[in-house]
Amino acid sequence: MSRLLRILRWTVGVGVVLALVVGGGAAFLYPKVQSVMEARAEAARGELVAVTPVRRDRVVRVVSAPGTVRASTSVNISSRVSAQIASIPRLDGEHVEAGQIVVTLDDKEIRAQVDAAEARLAADRANLAAVQASLRAEEASIEGTRASMDKAAADFERLSTLFASGDIAKSELDTVRAEFDRQRANLAAQIASLERTRANVESARAGIRIAEADLSRARENLSYTEIRSPIDGTITRVNMKEGEVALGTISNVGSTIMTIADLSDMRVIAALNEVDVARVREGMTVRVYINGFGDRVFTGELIRVAREGVAGADGTRVFDAEIVFDTEDERMFAGLTANVDIEVEALEDALVVPSQSVQDKRVEDLPQAIRENDPNIDRDRTYASVVFVYNDGKVVARGVKTSASSLRETAILAGLEEGDRVVSGPFRVLRTLKHNDTVRLEGDGAVVVEAAPARAAETAEAPEG
Fold first, then answer.
1. How far separated are the first and last CA of the chain, in Å rounded?
2. Which of 18, 38, 223, 257 is the most buried (most CB within 10 A)?
3. Rounded to an integer, what distance in angstroms lies between the CA atom of residue 271 and that of residue 62?
4. What one-character-per-residue DSSP string does 385-430 give?
5. Do 98 and 442 contact (CB within 8 A), yes or no?
6. H or E element at residue 366
7. Per-residue b or e along 85-94, where b marks 16 or more CB atoms closer than 10 Å to that residue's CB
8. What is the DSSP string of 229-277?
9. 98 neighbors 229 (Cβ within 8 angstroms)
């Protein structure tokens, strides 16, 4: 009997333990099972999407490019002499007028150079005066020597006649001949000395010209110690401080001390990609977007396109495009980053959809019926442009041909009609969406994105198809 009771107790204990284990496992797994069932139910109802009606609007083809705001006139102020900066009387941001002193250099050393050049010039002028006096004295001496030689020549000729007639002795004739030869040699020596003195005069005059040039250069260098603004403008940047040494020479401009710009006439210098440069022309309207001014749009005009490109950061060629724009009396800053949209063509009354709605899908992944029957699907190409049209809780993949697109909107040439509702988001869903998928709108179809009809669509240049 006791053995039977022990068996019963063991059996009941095991049953209780099994009940506890099974019940606990069920309690642990139930929330997970419930979550999976709810997720499957949610998936069966379809992804939550937003739709946008296809509408007609004016579409502007644009070429977009990054750029930088610059002043039409900007000059770098540098020193043409090496000297310590004594003062910078005007600060960054202050307005200056043409001719106004903006930097003063220490002029003590250069003033000493001027004084030395003036002294050298005075000494050279005194030397010239002395040499010229010697020249005049030698010229006078030559005249006396020439007169003495002429007299000796006349005496020699007269005595030669007397010697021929036997009236004088030969020794007397020889004495006169020696005097004539001495005077002639003396004249030749004085003429040679005179030529040397004349050369000395020319050398002294050349020395004066050199001294005058040195003095002029020293005085010019002295004038460079007061650096003046060449234009009316605003100091946009100061690179050096008082006490620092500005380096420079007359032939080589030194480091930039400051920059002065005319901020009353601002431009944007944009970098046009080589694939876009042939599409733009001077005179085209430009929309300018400038960092720091939010979504505000400034209106401008393309006035210049460079005819020679330079290497861009990614290795492609870029061409400078200069845009003048209306600042609308805003305080503008040189160096601001900008983006420009150059209007190259306007399409009137075009069908427009959000750009995100147009998806590139592999042709082989589309249903066979669409590949074969949709005229906008080119089966010879790897990818096709597709939109998903919402229709009573499901989406239909439809091939489209596009005309122009931007980050915001795309113009449609074929494949849609006005009023069609296309799926416009979210992007996560669009990437995986397939033909005939079930979708749902928030609430009772409230997620319908309406575009403002008053704004024309602005699109960037894109290939057709």
1. 94
2. 257
3. 15
4. EEEEEEETTEEEEEE-EEEEE-SSEEEEEES--TT-EEEEE-HHHH
5. no
6. none
7. bbebebeeee
8. -SSSEEEEEE---TTSEEP--SSS---EEEEEE-TTSEEEEEEEETTTG
9. yes
184: its two tokens: 């002639």
> Can you tell me which residue has the tokens 């894109």?
462
Which candidate, 198, 200, 201, 186, places its Cα nearest to that of 141? 186
Contacts 24+ apart (CB under 8 A), 177-185: 179/152, 179/155, 180/149, 180/152, 180/153, 180/155, 180/156, 182/152, 183/145, 183/148, 183/149, 183/152, 184/149, 184/152
Which phi and psi (to 5°) does residue 211 adopt? -65, -40
CA distance 409 to 418: 15
Q: Measuring CA to CA, how many Å separate 409 from each of 388, 412, 460? A: 15, 10, 9
Q: pLDDT 10s per residue in the chain (465 long)?
A: 555 556 556 565 555 445 554 555 545 555 665 565 555 555 556 889 999 999 998 878 888 999 999 998 999 999 988 999 999 998 888 999 999 999 999 999 999 999 999 999 999 999 989 988 988 888 888 888 788 888 878 877 888 888 787 778 888 878 878 888 888 888 888 888 888 988 988 998 999 999 999 999 999 999 999 999 999 999 999 999 999 999 877 666 667 899 999 988 899 999 999 999 999 999 999 999 999 898 899 999 999 999 999 987 777 899 999 999 999 888 888 899 999 999 988 788 889 999 889 989 888 888 988 888 899 888 888 899 999 999 888 999 999 998 876 667 888 989 999 999 999 889 889 888 888 899 998 654 434 444 444 334 444 544 343
Of 458, 410, 452, 454, which Cα lies nearest the Cα of 297?
458
Q: Coil, strand or helix: which one is 345? A: strand
Alpha-carbon distance 135 to 143, whole Å? 13
CA distance 459 to 465: 15
Q: What is the dihedral of CA 12, 16, 19, 20, to 10 degrees?
A: -170
What is the identity of the amino acid at 347? Answer: L
